[in-house]
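Sorry to interrupt, but I need a hand with the structure work. Go ahead and set the record down below:
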Amino acid sequence: MRYLVGIDNGGTFSKAAIFDEDGVQIAVASVPTVTLTPKPGYTERDMEELWEVNAAAVKAAIEKSGIDPALIAGVSFSGHGKGLYLTDREEKPVYRGILSTDARAWKYIKKMV
């Protein structure tokens, strides 16, 4: 059996859910996030904090599920606003936003959990 991870980044928390290949939810975990509001009508996210929150949510979901992380076949993201923007260790974009996603981000997430 292989598993899939979905990560949802909302305005107040990030949630990671693990599903089996049949779409059955195996485990879910959420971690509060900080939304910065430098002035009215503006919201920002600290990308380092968001990265840590995502890693913590994924780690907690994996621990709740009891599955072997090596059995995770894919990861999908949805983000608050215009999407989640991940960067690698050199601060280069892994991908841009919710409409342009691919599995390359998983290799970076695996290092964090």
Residues 95-103 have pLDDT under 50 and may be disordered. DSSP finds two helices and six strands in the chain. The beta strands are 3-9, 13-20, 25-32, 72-78, 86-87, 93-95. The CA atoms of residues 81 and 110 lie 25 Å apart.
